[in-house]
Amino acid sequence: MAAEQRKLLEQLMGADQLIGTGAPSRNAQLSITDQKVCRSYLVGTCPHDLFTNTKQDLGPCPKIHSEGLKTEYETASAAEKAKWGFEYDYMRDMQKYIDDCDRRIDSAQRRLEKTPDEIRQTNNLLKQISDLSKTINTGLLEISVLGETGSVALALNELHKVRTTKHQKETCERELKNLQDTSGPSGHQKLQVCDVCGAYLSRLDNDRRLADHFFGKMHMGYSDMRKTYKKLSEELKGRPPPSRHHDDEDSWGGRSGGGRGPRYGGGGYRKRGGRW
Hints:
Elements: H1 2-13, H2 15-18, H3 39-43, H4 47-50, H5 67-75, H6 78-84, H7 86-111, H8 116-148, H9 152-182, E1 191-193, E2 200-202, H10 207-214, H11 217-236
Antiparallel strand pairs: 1-2
Helix pairs in contact: 7-11, 8-9
Family: Belongs to the Luc7 family.
InterPro entries: Luc7-rel (IPR004882)
Protein name: Splicing factor
């Protein structure tokens, strides 16, 4: 809603009047390359506009969103866009929020893992099932040999042992299934983590609830961001960003980039955990 309300206010008041919380039009001559302008908004969708009124609401963007400058960018030539290099700023912003989301996903996954005691019980049951399977196979082979030699009584006795062992194996398999269904903090809810947005999902959810999640604003926001990030990274792969002045806080590897240095040329942006 915040993005829609802002657009409506810009239409009613004029974008330059809205900039700076309604101050006089001191930003009327704002340049498209000004550091105060949100470059993510110019190129695509500002992350701050994706998650309004969701659990991941980022609040208002600290930079300026000007529809006039966005139109200027959209109508600019390919050469001008390449000179500005705003796509790299957009990718850097998206990578920040994608990395944050991936860390939440990894943390949520760890919370659903089994406890050491549950792991020990699982391993013990798996070993028992394996040993019982070997005993059954050996018994069946013995029955076959005894039958061929005419030792009917011994074969029947061995058959009884095999049936008893099969019952023991079935009991262990039921215990293992019950442990797998109820172990971990997820317990009876059978929770799993959405690998796109990090929300918890229940395997027991019906189609309607799953649809509400997958078409919800938060999931769609992260899904769109990941797709856009992947598309841009492929388009810019092997293309170095334009040089910027070292004093520019938005220069490659500057303060806004978290001090990690250039990550653009040669496809330097990375894919995290298969979560496009």
